[in-house]
Design brief:
Number of strands: 7
Strand order of the largest sheet: 1-3-4-2-5-6-7
Structural class: alpha/beta
Bound molecules: guanosine-5'-diphosphate
CATH architecture: 3-Layer(aba) Sandwich
Number of helices: 6
Order of helices and strands: HEEHEEHEHEHEH
CATH topology: Rossmann fold
Length: 199
């Protein structure tokens, strides 16, 4: 993941209008709170300190932007499903994401992080529908695979087959462990394609 190792924090944006110009390639990462989004980000970039910024109080509702090079950015979208978030905050989150998906032509794909023990919850399904509505490819990471036996992890993959069939080839899925760093190569292949590294 040598390209990804170069990632540096650029800024946190509360509004879409604060984002850098809509050029080059952007990949966004999203997921329910606690699914392991920050751990995945740190794993991709091999930098354990990188995503700490997204945990800074007050920045949880913001888009944290990491730069790989002048054309490529990794966007850490605000997590969803936090307990006890006021409705007003939720609406604001929806409005920001809405605008981001609608306006950002450089957005090439979305990494959707789920906890393999609790996959495809309602809010995850909403996010999937939403991405498909915007014709965005989604790569699902069933994270924390180390918490399950190989057989149990395989069963989750099998259970997901009908869901994937319904969504078509725009949605792909793999098991992952940010802790054990398993599945990193498979993820890299998807990211490389979206970022145009091999073309
Ligand atoms: P976020 O809220 O989605 O950014 O989640 P974090 O990255 O902060 O992770 C939430 C919790 O899950 C932390 O305690 C992590 O250490 C743990 N975690 C994240 N990824 C993994 C994983 O692959 N395996 C295990 N066992 N724990 C993980």
């Amino acid at each position: 993941m040598s390209h990804y190792k170069k990632a540096t924090f650029l800024l946190s944006a509360a509004e879409v209008k604060q984002l850098p110009p809509d050029m080059g390639y952007e990949v966004a990462i999203v997921g329910r709170s606690n699914a392991g989004k920050s751990s995945v980000l740190n794993c991709i970039t091999q930098n354990n300190k990188l995503a700490r910024v997204s945990k800074t109080p007050g920045r949880t509702q913001q888009i944290n932007i990491f730069v790989l090079d002048e054309d490529r950015r990794l966007m850490d979208l605000p997590g969803y499903g936090f307990a006890h978030v006021p409705l007003r905050e939720k609406r604001k989150w929806e409005a920001t994401i809405n605008k981001y998906f609608e306006q950002r032509t450089c957005l090439k794909g979305l990494v959707l992080v789920m906890d393999i023990r609790h996959p495809f919850r309602d809010l995850d399904m909403n996010m999937l529908d939403y991405c498909l509505h915007h014709e965005l490819p989604v790569h699902i990471l069933l994270n924390k695979a180390d918490k399950l036996s190989k057989g149990a992890a395989k069963a989750v993959l099998l259970d997901a087959v009908p869901i994937l069939e319904e969504y078509g080839p725009q949605v792909t899925l793999q098991t992952f462990s940010a802790m054990k760093k398993t599945g990193v190569k498979e993820l890299q292949t998807v990211l490389d394609k979206w970022y145009g590294y091999n073309s």
